[in-house]
Design brief:
Blueprint: H1 9-14, H2 26-29, E1 36-37, E2 50-60, E3 63-73, E4 80-87, E5 93-101, E6 104-107, E7 109-112, H3 113-125, E8 128-137, E9 140-148, E10 153-163, E11 170-175, H4 190-196, E12 202-203, E13 213-221, E14 226-230, E15 236-240, E16 245-250, E17 262-268, E18 276-281, E19 286-292, E20 306-313, H5 321-335, E21 342-348, E22 352-354, E23 360-361, H6 364-375, H7 385-394, E24 402-409, H8 416-426, E25 431-437, H9 443-452, E26 457-460, H10 466-477, E27 483-488, E28 493-498, E29 511-518, E30 524-531, E31 534-541, H11 553-567, H12 576-589, E32 596-605, E33 613-616, E34 649-650, E35 714-720, H13 726-743, E36 751-758, E37 764-770, H14 777-788, E38 801-808
Parallel strand pairs: 1-12, 2-13, 4-33, 20-21, 20-24, 24-25, 25-26
Antiparallel strand pairs: 2-3, 3-10, 4-9, 5-6, 5-10, 7-32, 8-9, 8-32, 11-17, 13-16, 14-17, 15-16, 18-19, 19-29, 21-22, 21-23, 27-30, 28-29, 30-31, 34-37, 35-38, 36-37, 36-38
Helix pairs in contact: 5-6, 5-10, 7-8, 8-9, 11-12
Length: 809
């Protein structure tokens, strides 16, 4: 393999530094919280401790119980500490963990987070085997395993449960397999590092496989006859045992299938759903869950006009498959708008741009204009979600139109609570729907945004699924199925009900309500509301349902929902009372939370004083995600519209999304969309103005003289697309000459042709060497890092451009 493995964390940090400071030490660059590519030799494939991950899933009725087994093995000659970041379902209630070493099994204790970490560190320093499970996000966990001695095989098992609710009669079980790369701002901020240090994690390059294996088996006992079982994400085999039971096993060819979520879908005969009341009598308290099937959809003849705002993520992590899927999805939604609808689009990465300052009516020409702008997005830069959300809420709407906000993103950010709070505070009369795009999206963000926005989440794992998801979305929002929902519990004395209020229902999906009860349930429970045809009621006979020990998971599920309610916004406006309540729930119910962790410590001291090596387990990039999601390294594949003639490319890091100051900034034309050159023709060309004709390649041949007659860096053979002039490039080159020369100071000579791709803000999103490899490897790396920290004049059309030129020394 070529020398392709540089730490991607450099890119976000380099963007903030002058070129003269690019020679950083490893300790300095590690202060950034960006993900990075694993470096062969530092965290090489030979010493990786994670051997396998296996999930055993048991689904009984509407409750799944999952046991995850991670096996760690030390094949080296030194003691190891393994650190592994992995995902879980956003609905998971993690209630147990144990560690096995040889014939010794240690059951983990639940403790306050700080106490658990202290216990683990003390055991690690004392030479004892120990494991620690912490929650970094509700769907991101971190496992630490200490003192894995040479030859050791350590098995760590964790258990969680979740409730499965169907949509339009289809049940879905999702087992997330890999955490997508996240970029956390505030690199050297100690507080930020403490909260988000898990984001500084090594990744393999796109398409590279891990040394550890993945396996999963699902035992399905549906309780009703099964009509169909499908796994759209992986190859599987299905064996039926009667009409209502089935076993789903992963095909052996999928042993490296841990780079995308495992998705299992099944339908019951006649599209029935498990509805009704489940009860559990505990030692101290009793628990219930109600799943009530709403009425069939009523299509209203008088659907009000709607005003849509589409927010599209075009950051580096969306490069390639995710962005192409987003394009397909948004085009589908746009082309099905009614003539009475209006719409707008916001594209965001490091900054954001808007299709129109005011809503556009859904005319054929306006939709075509939107599609053209959409097709010109390539993906690059950071993921500044919060400014894009705020921008959307600030946009004017149409009077008397029902507003719907739709976002399409992979969710690779670390600002989930801030996003939830922003949506809740600005929601008004709008419903908020979230589309997660990709094979391993941040479901915590996607589902959380939809939840606080009183909408629904959708996840699109494959481009071919975009149309179906768009159809599902349109069907859902045609008209609410049930509004003004109320539940009369009759003779059932309930308390601590979750959620406290039931939102409008948009689809054929059961209402789910958790809670506790006292005494014996009796009488009728009545669900009421309004449909398009008038009042609606549904009744359940409480006396016909008996508590069952098989429903013991209800206590965990209730607690998990209460914790989610308390914790969604606590990062943004921390409350001591809320923290105390979440912590106590975790301790009382033996649950992993933000403030409680599982820790297991073996009493035997096995490491007699030899220092352990900490190994951060590298993760595969989610399937379909390019190297641009991590950056700072050689990208696996350039944009399809930008095909190079060389064997390697370079791309900036996930943090390289800021809009940088430019000496030409004041002379730039106003932002906007220019479909033809006639729409923007500056009367006089000033430094930084963009002349030329959009889309036309304009060649120039310029060879500057050397400075003071001495050896100097020169450029020639300039070609470019879009609004750039030779004068623009010459000014840029002279302003940055010293930094470029400094990067090549170690090269006696240098001659190479580069293609640089620039986004709509002038940020470098791709650097490609055309033709043979440059003969100065170290200088090449330094040059790339220098270019990553620079900006070109921002194209006035917001579409970016490609620049090709030769540098010689």
């Amino acid at each position: 393999m070529k020398n392709r493995l540089l730490r991607g964390a450099l890119a976000g940090f380099l963007a903030l530094l002058p070129a003269a400071m690019l020679a950083q030490t490893a300790d300095q660059t590690d202060k950034t919280l960006s993900p990075y590519f694993v470096v062969q030799g530092e965290e090489g494939m030979d010493g990786l401790p994670l051997k396998s991950t296996n999930a055993q899933v048991h689904i009984a009725g509407v409750i799944s119980d999952v046991q995850v087994t991670q096996v760690y093995e030390n094949k080296g000659s030194k003691p190891l500490e393994a650190v592994y970041v992995f995902p879980a379902s956003t609905q998971a209630a993690v209630y147990g963990m144990k560690m096995t070493i040889g014939d010794r099994t240690i059951v983990a204790d639940i403790k306050k987070r700080d106490e658990a970490r202290k216990t683990y560190e003390q055991a690690k320093n004392a030479g004892q085997n120990a494991s620690l499970l912490e929650e970094q996000r509700s769907n991101v966990f971190q496992m630490n395993v200490a003192n894995i001695m040479p030859g050791d095989v350590v098995k760590v098992e964790l258990k969680y449960t979740e409730l499965l609710t169907p949509t339009s009669g289809v049940y879905e079980f999702v087992y997330p397999t890999v955490v997508g790369p996240r970029y956390a701002k505030g690199g050297s901020n100690p507080q930020a590092a403490g909260e988000n240090s898990w984001t500084h994690n090594p990744y393999l390059h796109s398409g590279e496989t891990t040394s550890n294996t993945f396996d999963i088996t699902v035992d399905l006992s549906a309780g009703l006859p099964i009509q169909d079982v499908q796994c759209p994400s992986h190859k599987t085999s299905v064996a039926y045992d009667g009409k209502s039971m089935a076993t789903v096993k992963l095909d052996p060819s999928e042993s490296q299938g841990g780079n995308r979520d495992f998705v299992l879908k099944y339908k019951l005969e006649g599209s029935q759903v498990q509805t009704g009341l489940l009860l559990y009598k505990g030692d101290k308290e009793n628990y219930f869950v109600i799943m009530a099937q709403p009425p069939k959809r009523v299509v209203s003849k008088e659907i009000p006009s709607r005003d849509y705002i589409f927010i599209v993520d075009v950051s580096g992590s969306m490069y390639g498959f995710p962005l192409e899927t987003s394009k397909k999805l948004i085009k589908n939604l746009l082309t099905h708008l009614r003539s009475t609808d209006s719409f707008n689009i916001i594209f965001f990465s490091g900054g954001d741009q808007t299709l129109s300052p005011t809503p556009l009516m859904a005319t054929k020409s306006n939709i075509q204009k939107a599609i053209q702008m959409l097709e010109n997005q390539d993906g690059g830069g950071g993921t500044e979600l919060l400014p894009a959300l705020q921008h959307a809420f600030n946009l004017p709407g149409r009077e008397n139109a029902s507003r719907t906000v739709v976002i399409a993103t992979d969710g690779y950010v670390d600002v989930e609570p801030q996003a939830f709070d922003l949506i809740k505070k600005n929601l008004g009369q709008a419903n908020f729907f979230a589309f997660g795009i990709g094979t391993a999206v941040n479901r915590h963000l996607i589902e959380g945004m939809a939840r606080v926005g009183m909408g629904e989440p959708f996840v699109v794992e494959k481009p071919e699924a975009a149309s179906a998801k768009a159809d599902e979305f349109r069907k859902m929002i045609d008209s609410p199925v049930l509004t003004g929902v109320k539940i009369n519990f009759g003779g059932m004395k309930v308390y601590d009900v979750e959620p406290a209020s039931v939102p409008d229902v948009f689809t054929e999906r059961p209402l789910v309500v958790f809670g506790k009860y006292r005494g014996e349930p009796k009488g009728l429970m009545v669900l009421s509301g309004h449909t398009g045809e008038g009042p609606y009621e549904s009744k359940i006979d409480l006396a016909s349902t008996a508590p069952m020990t098989e429903n013991s998971a209800l206590r965990y599920l209730w607690a998990r929902h209460r914790i989610a309610t308390l914790g969604d916004y606590n990062f943004l406006s921390a409350s001591d009372e809320r923290v105390k309540a979440i912590t106590q729930l975790g301790l009382d119910y033996n649950l992993l939370t933000e403030y409680t962790s599982f820790v297991a410590v073996d009493s035997l001291k096995r490491n007699k004083g030899e220092k352990s090596t900490t190994v951060n387990q590298p993760l595969p990039l989610p399937q379909g995600v390019s190297d641009l999601a991590v950056g700072g390294n050689y990208a696996a594949a350039p944009s399809p519209a930008y095909a190079p003639s060389t064997s390697y490319d370079y791309a900036p890091g996930a943090g390289n999304g800021a809009i940088y100051n430019s000496p030409m900034a004041e002379a730039l034309p106003p932002s906007g969309n220019y479909e033809t050159a006639k729409e923007y023709e500056p009367k006089e060309k000033a430094v930084g103005h963009f002349g030329g004709v959009l889309g036309k390649k304009v060649p120039t041949l310029h060879s500057p003289e050397t400075d003071n007659g001495g050896p100097s860096l020169t450029w020639s053979g300039l070609t470019f697309t879009s609004f750039l002039t030779e004068a623009d490039f010459k000014t840029w080159f002279e302003n940055n000459r010293s930094a470029l020369e400094a990067s090549l100071s170690g090269c006696a000579s240098f001659n190479a042709t580069l293609k640089v791709k620039v986004d709509g803000q002038g940020n470098v999103v791709l650097v490609n060497f055309v033709g043979p490899d440059p003969n100065c490897a170290e200088g090449t790396k330094n040059l790339v890092k220098t270019l990553q920290a620079m900006t070109f004049p921002a194209p006035g059309d917001g579409k970016g451009c490609e620049i090709e030129f030769t540098l010689a020394k």
